[in-house]
Each structure stands twice: as C-alpha cells, then as structure tokens.
C-alpha cells in the first residue's frame, strides 16, 4: 500500500524551512550558515553562603501548560507590579502580562522587557541590534492590550512595537533626558519601584549627598537592565544610573551605582580613595577602574542600612583566602563602621573612614584586568607612599 504522496510533495517535505515554517529556498549548508549562534550565558551574580542568585521574575516568561494546576480565574491573576495580570495564550504557551486598571499594558512593562536581555540567566537578545532595523511585523499604537503584544513578548526579535524597538525610535531611555526637572529623576518605574528607590536613597544618603548627585546635570535613575552582563550601571556622560528591576530589591545594587555617581559629582571629595577615578574624557584604564570599583564597593558595604548584601560581587574576584566572600564582607563592614549591625555610615564620617582604613580592607586587594597594582597599592602610590611601588606584580 502506497502513501499516495508524489515525488514533488516528498521533496517539498524534506526542504529546509525557517523558524516560521516557510521554505528557505536554500540547501542544507546555506540554512546552517544562517542559523543563530548558540545562546551565551551571562555572568550571573555569585551567591553568598550557597544561596541561589536572584531569578528573573514571572512577567514576560512563558508558563508550561502541562503539569500546572489551572488558575482559579481563567483570564486574570491578582499579582504582579500593577496588582493584576492577564493570562494570554500564544502557540502552546501561556504568558502573564501586567495590565493597568483599564486593561492596558503599562509602558513601563514594555520598556523593561525591551531592555531585558536574558531568560533564566541565558542571553537571548541584544536590544541595540533589535532597534537597528524594523521587523517585518510592526505592532502599532500607544495603548496596547496583552493580546496585542503577546507575540512580541514571546519573540521580541521577530516583532517590533512602534516607537519602542522600531528603527529611529527614541530608544526608550533617551526620551527621558529632556524631561528632567528635579535633582533626581526616577524614570520608567512602577509606583512600587519608585517608592523603593526613594526609600533606599533616603535611608542611605544624606540630603546634602543627594543634592550633590545632580552637580553634573540632574541624576537619572532608570528602571531597565543596563547591559547583558550587569545588574546595574552608571553612565557618566548621561549622569544616569540604570538598574535591572530584578535586582532593585537588593540594596547593594542601587547603592553601588549611586556611589559611583556621588564620587563623580561631589566636588567636595578630594581624597584619593573617595573621589572618582572615572576618566571624563574617555576610557578609564584598568588600573583606575581597579581603584574605582574597589573603593565604590567598599563604600557600599560601609553605607548600607539596614545591612544586607545579595551576592559576592567584587569580593568574589579577590585572591583565595581563608575567609569566604561573606566573611570578607563582614570583616570590611566591621573595619569601616566599627560594628556589624544595621546602621551604616554617611557623609564626612564615611569619607574619613574610607580614606583612613581602605589600606587595611579586604576589598583593597582587588585587581582588574591588566592593572599592575592592587587597589590599595595604587592608592598608596597616588598618596605618595613609596610602599605602593613594592607591590607591583604581587598585589
């Protein structure tokens, strides 16, 4: 008994197709040459004491339908940053997408997802490449419902949203530059995220320190993953801090980046350890970056109130010692503040502690890239202490 298929249909069945199921029109070798590169795994936050690193949130992530109990409400779930999310099917998967009180998707969600470059720790897209040219399918409109954008949520590289990732769009974060009116502008944040930023700033920086943050132009705090391999970033040319929303709940992320900004903007800081090593004219050398990151993170550890640290950060890059990263962090906290409790240092007390005790700190052992000196040795050299010259090549 024959299958009834013609030779032509069998050839068509065997011909390579693209991800949408369309014929590619090329042979096997050509199809392989156009295949996307394998996924790259970003450098994840290193946990302390065996704790798992923070995971990506639910929104924008597909839920497998098999093996899960059905939701009580078939369409809406009372959860998420807006208090309500809609469950939308796309293909064989369901997606939970936040909605406002009128059932529309908040722009903050769209922009934060646009900046999100990874799923479960694996890099899967580059927003800058995405925005170079338009996709074949563009989703128009400013007020969009979950059903309108679920295909973009599932495949942001295959579809574009007009004005978000279409070519020539304002690139999301850029449009906020002209809207800054206050010394500190918090942009692209849900109400709860904005409240958390304000809580962390008020709890960890004096009013005069917050005022100094806008010395080189109003400081922008933007909710959006900054780079594929970073949980936060300070961009001096924009005087802007970018924070991955998933790490906002961990104060060492925001405080670290704001300390970079304070070191860069506060002209009252003139000490070697507490003033910025960021080269304002161009690239910063590995040697200056070593001191900048070590001093910034040391100040972060000394400043945090209440004391809470999410991962090893730069302590994980220190030479192997008897103490683990968590032990070294607590040791430096004690060194800088004189105690290990929920009360950190601020203002001149913090500056004095960093300038006077950095040379004895664990984080002072940091050395990045091709830097010939550790952070502490470089600080000694800059202070004119010849002891720093004897540590070249040893740290």
What report would you give on this structure?
- The protein is of the alpha/beta class and 395 residues long.
- The chain has two domains: 62-161, no CATH class; 185-391, no CATH class.
- 31% of the residues lie in helices and 11% in strands.
- It has helices at 7-14, 28-33, 107-115, 127-130, 146-154, 191-204, 207-212, 251-265, 286-303, 325-337, 347-357, 375-382, and strands spanning 62-63, 76-77, 85-90, 93-98, 118-119, 122-123, 137-139, 159-161, 184-187, 219-223, 232-235, 240-243.
- The strands form four sheets. The chain has a four-stranded antiparallel sheet.
- Helix 8 crosses helix 9 (286-303).
- The longest helix is centred in the last third of the chain and has 18 residues, at 286-303.
- The radius of gyration is 25 Å and the shape is elongated.
Helix-strand layout with pairing:
Layout: H1 7-14, H2 28-33, E1 62-63, E2 76-77, E3 85-90, E4 93-98, H3 107-115, E5 118-119, E6 122-123, H4 127-130, E7 137-139, H5 146-154, E8 159-161, E9 184-187, H6 191-204, H7 207-212, E10 219-223, E11 232-235, E12 240-243, H8 251-265, H9 286-303, H10 325-337, H11 347-357, H12 375-382
Parallel strand pairs: 7-8, 9-10, 10-12
Antiparallel strand pairs: 1-4, 2-3, 3-4, 5-6, 11-12
Helix pairs in contact: 8-9, 9-10, 9-12
Question: In summary, what is this structure?
Answer:
With 395 residues, the chain is an alpha/beta fold.
Report the sheet-strand fraction.
5-15%
Strand order of the largest sheet: 1-4-3-2
Specify the overall morphology: elongated
- Total helix count? 12
> Percent of residues in helical segments?
25-40%
Radius of gyration: 25 Å
């Amino acid at each position: 008994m024959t299958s009834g298929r013609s030779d032509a249909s069998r050839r068509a069945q065997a011909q390579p197709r693209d991800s949408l199921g369309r014929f590619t029109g090329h042979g096997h070798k050509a199809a392989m040459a156009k295949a996307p590169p394998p996924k790259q795994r970003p450098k994840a936050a290193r946990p302390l004491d065996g704790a798992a690193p923070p995971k990506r949130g639910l929104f924008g992530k597909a839920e497998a339908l098999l093996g899960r109990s059905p939701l009580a409400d078939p369409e809406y779930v009372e959860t998420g940053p807006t208090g309500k999310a809609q469950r939308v099917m796309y293909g064989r998967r369901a997606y939970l997408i936040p909605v406002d009180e009128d059932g529309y998707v908040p722009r903050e969600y769209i922009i934060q997802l646009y900046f999100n470059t990874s799923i479960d720790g694996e890099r899967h897209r580059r927003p800058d490449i995405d925005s170079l040219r338009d996709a074949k399918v563009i989703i128009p409109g400013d007020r969009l419902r979950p059903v309108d954008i679920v295909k973009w949520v599932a495949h942001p590289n295959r579809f574009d949203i007009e004005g978000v990732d279409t070519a020539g769009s304002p690139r999301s974060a850029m449009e906020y530059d002209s809207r800054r009116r206050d010394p500190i502008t918090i942009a692209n944040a849900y109400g709860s995220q904005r409240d958390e930023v304000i809580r962390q700033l008020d709890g960890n920086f004096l009013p005069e320190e917050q005022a100094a943050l806008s010395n080189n132009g109003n400081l922008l705090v933007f909710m959006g993953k900054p780079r594929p391999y970073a949980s936060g970033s300070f961009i001096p040319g924009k005087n802007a801090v970018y924070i991955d929303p998933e790490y906002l709940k961990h104060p060492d992320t925001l405080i670290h980046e704001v300390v970079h900004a304070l070191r860069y903007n506060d002209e009252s800081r003139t000490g070697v350890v507490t003033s910025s090593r960021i080269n304002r004219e161009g690239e910063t050398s590995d040697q200056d970056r070593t001191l900048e990151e070590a001093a910034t993170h040391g100040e972060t550890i000394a400043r945090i109130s209440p004391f809470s640290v999410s991962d090893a950060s730069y302590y994980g890059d220190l030479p192997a010692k008897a103490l683990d990263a968590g032990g070294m962090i607590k040791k430096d906290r004690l060194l800088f503040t004189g105690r290990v409790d929920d009360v950190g240092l601020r203002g001149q007390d913090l500056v004095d502690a960093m300038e006077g005790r950095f040379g004895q700190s664990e984080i002072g052992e940091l050395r990045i890239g091709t830097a010939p000196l550790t952070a502490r040795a470089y600080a000694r050299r800059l202070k004119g202490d010849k002891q720093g010259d004897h540590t070249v090549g040893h740290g």
